[in-house]
Every structure is written in structure tokens, then in C-alpha cells.
Design goal:
Layout: E1 3-10, H1 15-34, E2 38-44, E3 58-66, E4 69-70, H2 73-80, E5 87-93, H3 99-109, E6 120-125, E7 127-128, H4 135-150, H5 156-169, E8 171-172, H6 176-190
Parallel strand pairs: 1-2, 1-3, 3-5, 5-6
Antiparallel strand pairs: 3-4, 7-8
Helix pairs in contact: 1-6, 4-5
This protein binds flavin mononucleotide.
């Protein structure tokens, strides 16, 4: 039977969208290899009808991290309630890829009345360009940098200094390898 996949993404400066493109391409080619018929739709968060999420076999929501929060997730949560086993969330940030960071993202974003324990969560490293960040976002990053300098953040020594450098100079750390874990998670749901 034909499987349906929806990838909807919230991307302010492009990284989360790039991952959505990689994920779509990867799911289509994995399904091709395995002889699975699939229809993969991709849409911008703002144009997605959340009421229709229940129509899909796999629901993938991607968004960027802002102050450790997955932007837009709170408005998506009521619509995935009951669909957790077929839902995947990936988020893009510039913090390091490590278990402590993953645990913190999980703790902050999956701590809710809605049970998120069956939702698969993935972290994908994105990009940051200080020249493109304006207004309140710029102020927020300035404060983040000050905190890192003061050493208020626990792992301030190395990781904190690396982060400070990224905030000051920018970095593009996107890598298709992070999309591959999302694709693997989607295939697990498709092949169930
Ligand atoms: C105001 C602001 C807050 C941010 N907070 C975090 C954060 O808490 N953790 C993190 O890893 N990255 C954080 N970032 C970095 C973005 O999540 C990162 O640049 C991401 O790749 C942006 O995705 P996009 O290109 O799809 O918009 C922040 C960026 C801005 C501008």
C-alpha cells in the first residue's frame, strides 16, 4: 500500500529547509530501493493545515532552536496528540551535537501535558550568520554570548568558547549525515 509522508518545516534562515530537502530526497530513494510506494509532501509551516496531519502515515516537523525552544512546536503539539507513534521532530541549532545537549532539548521541549515519549526527536546542526540576525534575535544572541563569557553555562570551558566563536563569527555546520538519522527513523515507521 502506498505510504504518505508529510515534511513541514519552520526555517527562518534556511538550514531547517535544507534538511527538509535532504530528508525528502532520502526517504524517496530509500523507499525506491525497498520497492515501497511513497508520496512525500513538503510544506512550509505557515502554509501547513495542521488539521490534515492525521491523514499521513509519517509526520515530520522540522524547526529551529531559539533559546533552546523548538520554534512553533507548541502550536503543533495538540495536532499530533494521538499520532505520536508516527511523528518525528527534528530541530536545527548551532550548539554541539552531544548527549547532554540532546537531553536538554528533550527536557525543555518534551515536558508537557501531551505525552511525547513515542515521538522521535532528532537534532541536526544548522548554520548561523551573525550578519543576518536582527532585532530581538540579535539581542538574545548578544546576551547568550555574555553568559558564555561570564561562564554561567556549565560546560563553559571548551564548548562554551567554541559557541562564543560561532556567535561572533558565524558558521555553517549543516551536514547530510544528520538528515540520515531522520530518514532512518522515518523508514522504521514506514516499514512497521
Ligand atoms: C535568537 C536566536 C536564538 C538561538 N538559540 C539557539 C539555541 O538555544 N540553541 C541552538 O543550538 N541554536 C540556537 N540558535 C541558532 C539557530 O537555531 C540556528 O542558526 C539554526 O540553524 C537556524 O535555523 P534556520 O536556518 O532554519 O532558521 C539561535 C539563533 C537565534 C537567532
Amino acid at each position: 500500500m502506498k505510504k504518505s509522508v508529510l515534511i513541514f518545516y519552520n526555517s527562518k534562515r534556511g538550514s531547517t529547509k535544507t534538511y527538509a530537502d535532504w530528508i525528502e530526497k532520502g526517504i524517496i530513494s530509500s523507499c525506491d530501493e525497498k520497492g515501497i510506494e511513497v508520496v512525500c509532501e513538503k510544506s512550509n509551516f505557515a502554509e501547513t493545515n495542521l488539521e490534515e496531519l492525521k491523514e499521513y502515515d509519517v509526520i515530520i516537523f522540522g524547526s529551529w532552536l531559539r533559546g533552546s525552544g523548538i520554534v512553533g512546536l507548541n502550536s503543533v503539539k495538540p495536532y499530533i496528540d494521538g499520532l505520536q507513534k508516527r511523528t518525528i521532530i527534528y530541530c536545527c541549532g548551532i550548539s554541539e551535537y552531544n548527549p547532554a545537549n540532546y537531553a536538554q532539548i528533550m527536557e525543555i521541549n518534551f515536558n508537557d501535558k501531551i505525552d511525547m515519549s513515542d515521538v522521535k526527536l532528532y537534532y541536526c546542526i544548522g548554520a548561523y550568520d551573525p550578519n543576518k540576525v536582527k532585532g530581538i534575535d540579535r539581542l538574545m544572541m548578544w546576551i547568550a554570548k555574555k553568559i558564555l563569557i561570564k561562564g554561567t553555562i556549565k560546560e563553559e570551558s571548551d564548548a562554551g568558547m567554541r559557541m562564543k566563536k560561532i556567535i561572533e563569527e558565524g558558521a555553517d555546520l549543516k551536514d547530510e549525515k544528520y538528515a540520515r538519522q531522520v530518514i532512518k527513523g522515518a523508514m522504521e515507521i514506514i516499514e512497521k
